[in-house]
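[job 0412] stage=fold_complex status=start
inputs:
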Amino acid sequence: MNFALAVHGAPYSSQASSSALRFARAATAAGHQIERVFFYHDGVAVANESIVAPQDELDLPSEWTVLARDHKFELAVCIAASLKRGVVNESEQQRYETPSATLKPGFEVVGLGQLVDAVINADRLITFAA
Amino acid sequence: MTSKKILFLLRSAPYAGSKAYETLESLLVAAVFDQEVSVLFADDGVYQLLNEQDPSGIGTRSVGAGLKALSTYDVERVYASTQSLEERDVSITDIELPVDTLNAAQISTLIAAQDAVISG
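[job 0412] stage=fold_complex status=done
writing structure:
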């Protein structure tokens, strides 16, 4: 089966990102595909490159990028939701003249159309709410 | 483009953070993509329907004003939970939009008919 995932909660504040990561691992291990993971609302915070995970806790941003690379799916971050939460890629950093780009490599800043596109192409949408 | 039945399940109060407005934005994008969009207001989401919202004092955009765009985007399947309305004493006459009210059984039928549910 081909799954689209939506993640609405911030890492460490909510269980959403951790649960979604574990779901994605289990799904890919069982031979399923991930169409795209779409981070929305506070979920976009996981794409912040400046996150330093505690040593004895799951490094969620890195775990996501490793899994996505190994299984070739996109980690999509909503642009409107991410800008106001301080997650900016290089082009947005230049456009808004913020001090630095903060998007972790491996995540892509996209429009909301990519959420709809994922729903259209996937067999199921699984939402991990905050 | 493939058209899917997508239900937007709006459960957040309009000014409890950005969730209500952000979910409305995704709803409008789905409508632009010519999907078969339905909308259900439930739980605290029914507060989004109240008339005369004026959030200018808290520096945020009006969810009520945004919802008025629904008809412009040809979103005509708009529902609200009877139980949620009653629990919060929101009456149908307080409401800006033409909505159909659904009981729990009707909500189950609506959700079962969808390809996807996007909640927020």
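[job 0412] summary: Chain A has five helices and five strands.
[job 0412] exit 0
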